[in-house]
Amino acid sequence: MSLGRPEWPVIGELVVATIRRIESYGAYVYLDEYEKEGLLHISEISSRWVRNIRNHVREGQKVVLQVLRLDISRGHVDLSLRRVSKDERRKKIEDWKKTRKAETLLKSTASTLKLSDEEIFQKAGAKIIERYGTLYLGLEAAAKKGVDALTEAGVSKRIAKILAETARDKIVVKGVTIHGVFELTSMDPRGIDVIKGTLLETKKVAEANEAEVALYSLGAPKYRIEVTADDYKKAEAALENIVATAEASWSEQEGKFSFSRE
């Protein structure tokens, strides 16, 4: 069972399940997140008439199902495949994979610190979920920002340090990168130092705008800049501020300033 998850799903919830046994009237499935068995009746497999169930599902197949009815006293869960859209299926599988990965990282940290799964969930997992909504989002924040992302959620520094290191090793933080080219010439005898100073200033502006900058010389007077951020909106805002700051700084110099997007 997933860490911190209730014992039973709720009606209407989407669940990940594995087809275990196929009968003439439907298929019995294993609910991966709850360690329970459920029934996918033949009438809920497809919106079209189903002549042969095996043409639609097979043993061992992972499926996303919607909970239709629940009888906890009998341990009975009725499920539907036909009521789940392709987009819902894709998103649920994506979220499920992220949850599994996050829980694996949490358990790995528990093992390193010699804590039980329950202890690590109480000391870290529950706090991260409360702060970020999901365990994966919290660990993704830790992969980006480090220990502070976890201590801000109330996780102790001892646990946060190990967990943040694990997150950085195992979670690939996706971002977007945009490019441009500065052309800088200076008549100042200290021209090279002035140019270096201007380019270094771009890194400070990027940090203030939640972005990262990489600079490359294309051969004087041209310098390529790459701005990376979580999304295009942040990247564009950071680049706009970088160019404005650099141009304002260069206005005091004798020389040429230009910027072009790639």
What can you tell me about this protein's structure?
This protein has 262 residues and is of the alpha+beta class. The chain has three domains: 14-84, Nucleic acid-binding proteins (OB fold (Dihydrolipoamide Acetyltransferase, E2P)), CATH 2.40.50.140; 87-170, Translation initiation factor 2, subunit 1, domain 2 (DNA polymerase, domain 1, Orthogonal Bundle); 176-261, Alpha-Beta Plaits, CATH 3.30.70.1130. The chain is 42% helix and 26% strand. It contains seven helices and nine strands. It has helices at 86-112, 117-132, 135-145, 148-151, 157-170, 191-208, 232-250; strands at 14-23, 26-31, 36-41, 62-71, 76-80, 176-186, 212-217, 222-229, 255-261. A five-stranded mixed β-barrel has the order 1-2-3-5-4. The chain has a four-stranded antiparallel sheet with strand order 7-8-6-9. Strand 1 (14-23) and strand 2 (26-31) form a beta hairpin. Helix 6 (191-208) packs antiparallel against helix 7. The longest helix has 27 residues, at 86-112. The protein is elongated. The two termini are 49 Å apart. The model has no long low-confidence stretch (mean pLDDT 89).
